[in-house]
Write a structure and sequence with these properties.
The structure holds two protein chains of two kinds. By secondary structure, chain A is mostly helical. Chain A is built from twelve helices and two strands; from the N terminus they run ααααααααααααββ. Chain B is of the alpha/beta class. Chain B is globular and about 60 Å long. The chains are: A mainly alpha, B alpha/beta. Chains A and B meet through helix 5, helix 6 and helix 8 of A and helix 1, helix 5, helix 6 and helix 8 of B.
Chain lengths: 480, 420
Amino acid sequence: MTIPRTLPRPSEIPWSQVLATGLFALTLAVLVVDVVLWGGQRFRAPPVTFVRGQGILIMEMFMAVSYGAMGWLLAHRISRNPLGWLFLVIGVVTAMQMTATFLVQEDHQAFRQVDYGDLWAAWLSSSVYLPLLVGLFVVVFLRFPDGRPLSRRWGYASWLAAIGTVLVIATTGLSPEGLLWYPSLPNPIALSVDARPALAVAAVIGLVLLVSGTLIAAASMAVRYSRAGDIQRAQLRWIAVAVLLLAGGGVPFLVIRYALRLDYAAGEVMLIVAVGAACFLPIAAAVAVLRHRLYDIDVIIGRALVYIPLTGILGGLYTAGVAGAQRVFVTLTGDRSDAAIVITTLVLASMFTPIKNWLQAIVDRRFKPGAGHGHAAAPHVTLETLSARVAALEQAATGIPTAASSASVGASANPEAVSEPASPVVVATAVGSTVHPEPAASVVTPPAETPAPSNPATGAVGSRGSVAAATPTSGAPGHV
Amino acid sequence: MILIVVLALVAGACSPAPEGRIGGTVRVVGSWSGAEEAAFLAMVAPFEASSGIVVDYTGTRDLNGLLWEGVAKGRAPDVAGLPGPGQMVEFARHGALKDLSGVIDVQAYKAGTVPTFIELGSVDGALVGVFIKATLKGLIWFNPTVYSLEPPQTWQELDERATLAARADTETWCVALESEATSGWPGTDWIEDIVLRESGPDIYDEWVAGRLPWTSPEIRAAFSRYGTVVSNGWGGPTQQLATNFADGGNPLFSDPPGCLFHHQATFMTEFFRTRAGARAHDYDFFPFPTIDPRFANSVTGGGDLFGMFNDTPQARALMRYLVTPEAQSIWVQRGGALSVNLQVSSYPDAVSRRAADVLRSAERFRFDASDLMPEQMNEAFLQAVLDFTRSPTELDFILNGLETVRLQAYASDALTGPAQ
């Protein structure tokens, strides 16, 4: 039986998807500009505080891509959840602040004052980027994974962080000592030196609010984790670790950046730690999605993990193949030939499926629960395994119906009708003559009629400990 | 609460109170002597009059040695002209230089100054050095009555036109390398200009950063090209080594002229006037010719840095004064100097104005490479130029020696003092 998909209203689909795709494409386009600019500067470390090498910029580029990609995925699939949009915004602004950095470095090449437009871009990057990023992280911490805070009271942390963000932006943005992150540039809207004490007080207040909001938000994630059921915990585990890492790495850096003067080398290390922790959040989200079926969008990521490298491999092989074949033709005939392109294309066409299957097997092995040790978890294989184990149960314990067999038969007859990833299941295994429920390698969500806690993000059902119904079902829309 | 903060900010945003008379003395050490010393003293004269502070200036060519000795013995001057950004880093990391962010109006300094010079004056995020004037290097000076052809655009054109313009007993180049403790720097300027125009700014940066071996083809080629200059230079190696840089342009104006061209920076006009008796219309310049068209419109330059070793009210007042456009205009108006402050435009003659235009219109500006190198490397570079001028056939040996020094000098990046 096929469960019909619950589709959003048609008027919403194009708008959110187009916007999400547009933002992600913008992130990638800006990153391309960044790489071109930086390459033109021979990848020199730019004149930015606490940046003396290339590593931190490479990490920021990874951060922009990973947030953009995860944001696109989430906004694309669950557009009403704000997390995807927050991730997208983080990706875009991270890419853009690097553009400002490289433009500033470009301006340093000549004996001239910085271009006015570049100065304002640097102002935005120096004054707005980091406080805004922290404010966005606070919202992410509070609302992950279902898009809502634990309670209204927890939601007040957002207001603390928002006020703190505004104050920190205002105080750094009006600083009479130039731009915080670009020490060689003046501040286009600097206040007089006499305003320094007032700015310092406001900065401390803003910082306290921002840090408080961050810590409360991190605590809310810990509370959310402690209250969660087993499946939710599995989904939240990596996220919670990422949140704690980010709070632990980010808060000390915030304090030394805005309130204390610290040894430059130590500041450099703390910046690396903070950015590294920030990079971990989208990775943790991806792991939660792939390994623990958070949001039930693992199929899409799985496909992306197959098709993106597939494109790269085929592109590389095509380029190398054409070049190699042309060389052979030049050696044999003394001239180039279009046949080289035709032959290479035909060879690659024949290689498409084997390479795709090979990549699919790798992805399945790495991310598909229960598909380890070199076995791809094709649906019919999973069901056959399930049938065998249920049959074993029949021998060990009596009275369990063999509905799994019929499911297996059904799957064999129509494999496409079965959900691609193995679904969560709990299988009763026989130990001696006693039946013990335990999680099987291949986890299947309980049948629709079995009451179970809902998936916090999507409402999908699933519970550890319920004895499996033989008919495999899935919380994912469209699964059989 | 936000409203209160905003009101406090607005209330605080009034102009600073004017500085009154302080009195006392500020001890200053610099490398200037003669006309440059006179220019500096003229620059600080209004400051002395308004503040009541006496500027006690001492000039020395062994600036680096004097400063390190002063730092070691606890008798450093209050304020000093620093030998260069490379040495400044060493003094700053040694803890000898004071952070200027609470001393001068940083925002005003940044608003008026070329960003690359602010970056050069900063160490680990702290502003410890301010530039009070700039120099455009790599200019080719000539006497228009001796060389009257069109200025060459490329090195090849320069060679061709030098042949056309040559008279009997007139060599192509004037070269003068003597400068007491820093003898050889006019030669290092030559090498730097060639590296930038021949191999480009990227190679130049790698070289300065200690990531390019001195035995690389680019550096070898630069020395070789400089060797052709020396071999076509007036007086031969012995005289080139013995002639003080200030007198290096004198043969341009002698009768018969000793040379057609002299490679020097903008400040050379002062010496043309005071040492050779030349008048304003007796000299002119063209920018260093292009060697590789890919790197056209690149220039080298330098600047005079000031740092504060002792935090006294007098030293603070002087530092605040030196970075003002008013102070920098005084030196600029005397000729031979350019200002790092872009608000200053009071250049006294057409030559200075044109030099300022060349500097500001260049697509790529690079600071004097030797001044950016660690002191140990800088000293070895100076000596290498002198050795090569004396014995051009020893180039391999000289470059290998420089490479040995590079491996030592850049390995100990956190330098704490001069080479012993």
